[in-house]
Structure formats: C-alpha cells, structure tokens
Amino acid sequence: MQRINSKTLAHLMLMPILGSAKCVVDATAGNGHDTVFLAEHSSDDCVVYAFDIQQDALDSAKRLAEERGVAEKVRLVLDSHENVESHITDEIDAAMFNLGYLPTGDHQITTQADSTMKAILTMVRKLSVGGMVTVVSYSGHTAGAKEQERLFAELSELPVRYYTVSSFRMINHKDTAPMLFVIEKVRCENR
Ligand SMILES: C[S@@+](CC[C@H](N)C(=O)[O-])C[C@H]1O[C@@H](n2cnc3c(N)ncnc32)[C@H](O)[C@@H]1O
C-alpha cells in the first residue's frame, strides 16, 4: 500500500495550519475530496470556498460534503479560480489546487497554464503570513505538461524574502508522476 503520494503529501503539509484557519480555498473542487478534507480538519467557524467551472463537479462536491456532515461551512463557487478576488475579500489561510481534469469527466475541460498561474499568484498575495498554497500538477497530458513547466519557472522566481517554495516528486516513479508544489508565505509583502 502506497501511503505517500502528491495528494496525501499536500494534506500533510496543510494539516498543522488548518486548526486555526478562518478562510480556506479548494481552487479545483472536482468531486469534493479536497473540499471535504479542508472542512473536516478546520474549525467550525472556518469558511471553505470550493471553486470549479463545472456545475456537475460542484454538485458532486456538495453531495460529498452533505454525506460527511460539513456542507454548512462550504461555499460552492461556479467560476474560474482566477476570479478569486471577486468572491473572497478576506485573507486566505490555505489554498489547494489539484490541477488537470476530472478522471470521470470530460478530459477536454482541464486547467490551463495562464489561468492557473494567475489564480496561484492572486492566491499567494492574499495569503496570511504562515499560510500555504499547495498545487498538485500532472505532466502526463499536453496542457498539463505546459502548465507544470510554467509553474516550475514562475514559482521559482517568487521572492524568497516573502515566500518559501518547494516541489516534491517520487524519484523512482515515471517522469510524469504528479508533482507537488508548496508555497508558504513567510513575511508580509509590504515589510
Ligand atoms: C483533478 S480535478 C480536481 C479533483 C478534486 N480536487 C477532488 O478532490 O475530487 C480538476 C478540476 O478542476 C476544474 N477546473 C478546471 N479549470 C478550472 C478553473 N479555471 N477554475 C476552477 N476549476 C477548474 C475541473 O473542472 C476539475 O473538476
């Protein structure tokens, strides 16, 4: 049984900060597994925003949140994650991106490098100090490979004074194994 993969590692990274979080974001809700993870590990007064561009995905996420008894703290947003500022005015304590397409859905509806980068850069600016953004990225399809290349290039350039950025990959798996990026805000940008 494989316990460690990019998705479980993302959860482990966020776990220590969720208890005191007040506003967290699942930027790619899909079937709602990350939405429910965020809701189950945060306090009752934390709001979990779940973005997706597909109504079917949000319906699945809603169903799962209801089954697990956390629907009350979840706000479903049918919009692209790049528009996060139109929906959230508060600081964000944690955000998760699980890129690509829904394995059970239309594979043409997938995250794209431009909007993903815009969303991540907006999200990191809105992070509270000590907050984190995790991004699981897949290079095994054309749009995903382009997206991962952009992520690596642009996230490597985030200023070290304000952000710590790391990437994780299974080094004995295929080159296309999912990669996890973690961005932690270490200091407020205007200091
Ligand atoms: C790999 S799935 C996410 C899986 C999900 N985290 C889960 O736990 O089930 C990627 C999702 O991103 C969504 N997506 C694609 N582009 C998006 C965008 N610009 N904004 C928000 N969601 C997007 C897709 O519709 C799809 O549901």
Label this structure with key terms.
7-stranded mixed beta sheet, binds S-adenosylmethionine, Rossmann fold, alpha/beta, single chain, 6 helices
The overall number of domains is 1
Low-confidence segments: none
Q: Provide the residue-averaged pLDDT.
A: 97
Biggest sheet details: 7 strands, mixed
Looking across the biggest beta sheet, what order are the strands in? 3-2-1-4-5-7-6
CATH architecture grouping: 3-Layer(aba) Sandwich
CA radius of gyration: 15 Å
Number of strands: 7
- Note the run of SSEs as H and E: HEHEHEHEHEHEE
Hey, roughly how much beta strand do the residues contain?
15-25%
For CATH, the homologous superfamily is named as Vaccinia Virus protein VP39
Describe the structure.
The chain has 191 residues and is α/β, with parallel strands linked by helices. The protein has helices at 6-18, 33-40, 55-67, 84-87, 113-126, 142-155; strands at 23-26, 47-52, 74-78, 92-98, 127-137, 163-168, 179-185. 40% of the residues are buried. The protein starts with 5 loop residues before the first helix and ends in a 6-residue tail after the last strand. It contains six helices and seven strands; from the N terminus they run αβαβαβαβαβαββ. The protein has one domain (6-13, 20-185): Vaccinia Virus protein VP39 (Rossmann fold, 3-Layer(aba) Sandwich). It has a seven-stranded mixed β-sheet, with helices on both faces. α5 (113-126) runs parallel beside α6 (142-155). S-adenosylmethionine binds next to α2 and β2.
